[in-house]
Design goal:
DEUP1 protein; coiled coil; cytoplasm
């Protein structure tokens, strides 16, 4: 009996394990079926949303037209950019030559100013020298004038004495 019971238990465990495996396989099959349905639904949605060949051709033609317009616009912009670059180049050249001319002019004016400063300094030295000479000559003339006046005074005194002596004689 014990052996029968043990055999039954083994049989029951074996069937229970088989039952679990079948349930697990069923669960896996359900999961796969759900995945297949989801995939099928997604494909149907994609097919529904995909444009027709005619629509794709029209879209492609529109895109080609847009690209052509963009290419033309790009060419026009490139030409405008070249014009601007050329104008900028000419302006830069003009500005550089104007700067060079101004530098030369400033250099010339600076040189002239330097020469005039030298001339002014020379004239100032000569004027100072002439002023000293005039001052010395003035002092000499003042001394001579004073001597002349003194001599004139003596002359008059002597003449007056002379006249007085003549009268006395």
């Amino acid at each position: 009996m014990e052996a029968d019971f043990s055999e039954m238990r083994n049989e029951l465990q074996s069937r229970d394990a088989l039952w679990r495996r079948i349930q697990l396989e069923c669960q896996q099959l359900r999961t796969e079926l759900l995945k297949i349905r989801e995939y099928k639904d997604m494909q149907e949605i994609q097919i529904m949303h995909q444009p027709s060949c005619v629509q794709l051709t029209e879209q492609l033609e529109n895109k080609n037209a847009e690209l052509l317009l963009l290419a033309q616009n790009q060419e026009y912009q490139r030409e405008e950019l070249n014009k601007i670059r050329n104008h900028l180049y000419r302006e830069e050249q003009s500005h550089r030559s104007e700067q060079e001319r101004m530098k030369t002019e400033i250099s010339d004016l600076t040189e002239k100013l330097h020469q005039k400063e030298i001339t002014i300094a020379t004239i100032m030295e000569k004027a100072s020298l002439l002023q000293r000479q005039l001052k010395m000559e003035l002092e000499i003339k003042d001394k001579l004038l004073a001597k002349q006046q003194l001599l004139d005074f003596r002359y008059k005194v002597i003449k007056s004495e002379n006249t007085h002596l003549k009268e006395m004689v």
